[in-house]
């Protein structure tokens, strides 16, 4: 006797449908649906965090850039400008992630496991890059304070890069840890 696969919609913790269907066998285990819920939850957390962070960075960054110019303070202007640019990039990344998730459609249990593994790997790679951003920001700020500043970046730029790298590191590591505690092993 073969089991027929049928779409099953996952639900949020409040019982409302999430709008994402998963193809499962009628006898699918709770662990498999938990994996799907975990994937959706982490993806939504990443998107919401990046959107909120980008809105804050663009609005505060542009304000600081203008204030820095009026005060004739290059570091304040640089800090604001750098944060505004990072905010715009973060918004674009969040938008691409959201569109990709919406276009993805129905996932089988195996596809959910693959997506979990891919996302976890991406978050670990991003965390390494985040450490590079922090180190690079420290180097830019340090060089500037020693008077070895490039014409393009100064102490304010370096400080902003450190802030951005630190936020992204916390976000990426926290979500990678959530995925590491996956109820099913994604091999």
Please provide a written account of the structure.
The chain has a three-stranded mixed sheet. Strand 1 (5-11) and strand 2 form a beta hairpin. By secondary structure, the protein is mainly alpha-helical. Residues 1-28 have low confidence and may be disordered. Helix 1 (30-70) packs antiparallel against helix 4 (155-180) and helix 2 (74-104) runs parallel beside helix 4. It contains four helices and three strands, in the order ββααβαα.
Alpha-carbon Rg, integer: 21 Å
Cα-to-Cα separation, first versus last residue: 28 Å
Can you give the helix content as a percent range?
A: over 70%
Q: Number of DSSP strands?
A: 3
**Taking all residues together, what is the mean pLDDT?**
83
Strand content: 5-15%
Topology order in helix (H) and strand (E) letters: EEHHEHH
Strand order of the largest sheet: 1-2-3
Structural class, from secondary structure content?
mainly alpha
Q: Give the overall form.
A: elongated
Which segments are poorly predicted (pLDDT under 50) over 5 or more consecutive residues?
A: 1-28
């Amino acid at each position: 006797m073969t089991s027929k696969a049928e779409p099953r919609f996952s639900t949020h913790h409040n019982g409302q449908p999430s709008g994402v269907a998963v193809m499962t066998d009628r006898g699918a285990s709770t662990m498999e649906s938990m994996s799907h819920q975990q994937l959706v939850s982490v993806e939504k957390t990443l998107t919401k965090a990046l959107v909120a962070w980008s809105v804050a960075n663009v609005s505060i960054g542009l304000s600081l850039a203008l204030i820095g110019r009026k005060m004739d303070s290059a570091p304040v202007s640089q800090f604001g400008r750098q944060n505004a640019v990072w905010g715009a990039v973060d918004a674009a990344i969040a938008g691409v992630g959201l569109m990709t998730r919406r276009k993805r459609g129905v996932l089988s249990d195996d596809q959910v496991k693959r997506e979990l593994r891919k996302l976890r790997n991406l978050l670990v790679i991003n965390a390494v890059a985040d450490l590079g951003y922090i180190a690079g920001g420290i180097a830019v700020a340090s060089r500037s304070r020693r008077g070895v500043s490039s014409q393009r970046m100064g102490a304010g730029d370096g400080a902003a890069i450190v802030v951005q790298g630190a936020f992204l590191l916390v976000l990426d590591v926290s979500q990678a840890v959530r995925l590491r505690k996956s109820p099913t092993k994604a091999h």
